[in-house]
Amino acid sequence: VVSAVAVDLVGEGRDVISKYMEASSHLIENGGPAISIHQWMMQVARYSGPNSAPLGSLGGAKVEPGAGYRRLQILCSGLQSAYILFSIMASPGIDRRAVEDDTIEACVNLIKNHIQKHIIPSLSNTGHLGVASSTSSSKPPQDQDDEYLHPEMMSPMSKKTPMPRRSTPNRNDVAKSLKAVYGPILSTIGLFGTILESAETFIITNEMDDRLLFTVCAASLSSLTIDSSTAVRADTASLASLVQVSAMNLAVAIFRRYPRHRSIITEDLFPLMLKLPTSKRSLRTYLVRKSHGSTEMTNIKHSPYANTSGHEYIQPITALLLLSIQTCVTMPFQSDEDITEEGNADGGAEGSGSDSNQFDGEENKNSKANDTSGLDACAAVCNQFTSQMLQRCSRKGEEGGASEFRPILHNLIDDLLFVRQLPEYPSAEMILFYLSQRLGHDLLRASSMSKSSAQQMEATYLATAMDALGKITS
Question: Is the pTM for the entire model greater than 0.85?
């Protein structure tokens, strides 16, 4: 596992491609041997071509022919080892001390590195962005004395041989060549999904250090930024959905298991929203699963969120918010004193008919309070999220961020309105209620202010609030 943490196939492959392109184009002075990305990823090393590198000539084991395949095997072995370790620790009856803390930390770091360095670049086709732009060029060095001399005045010994102009490899060529690395990485997604599931079970049944929890939670949330590209493979959208669902379940497990971290995780959602894909194809990718009874509540044929196959989708960030709030529900607690008081009230009601209505009223009041006590944590998360969201939408132009969060608010409301009638997502109605309450409060406050005070509020935000409130109540 520790060896697999140090593997960066995309970065190493990018370096191999850059060196090969520079050597092939004679962009390096006294260009030496180089290997292609296909030679680097071959299971059996082959040496061919005028610039192919014989074994041991490149001075590093990571850039030898076949080294990429060996690095891939190290990564796969580390992923399998992490899955075995999490499965053992998640089994019932296993002592927590059976696996050292350093090993668990290595497994967490492997999950983070594999998501951020391998899966996201491979599915989004963004591994070539680490290459500098190919438009840059550098002027070959010249002697200062020859810079001001006319060529006819220079002696034959002082004339310099023209040097080739240096430039960096083309990003498009690097992106095409990196597909040889993306394919083997995408073949590990099935195994990686099982690792996330076993890690979820481990987190539910065992205590973890806060630092490791934040690491794995941040890595899981970063998977929502995947913008799947069909240029890599035709099924990248389904692979991205598999990774996102498993990562979301892991983040929700942390949200449920550790109430003290819910406020911090909720705060981390807002910077993440600015990195989400905005294209129509990648905006809504989370499949809305409905039971047979809830299918009759919505019309798939006329739904704006249905694709050609009839399935309906919402944003993954909306699904994460709904699942996180719903996981905060607890069983209403009723103390022994309340049970005793209810028993005494029932006995008194049988003996005194005149006081029956009074006892029934108090009993209904206590019962109502106990029935809603299990939603206190859900209300706290909804209150924090809606207040922070509208606070960012109401910022003035010089403070920044408002213009970016207002479209996010509209997309969020559209998703919530779409699933509000489904019994699988009861938290949608609660979020809409808190949004309506705060939007109405801001509008009423702006209308009751004096003209000078009302100018302190952003006029664009008031228009957004009116539009959002009208959409919710319509």
Answer: no
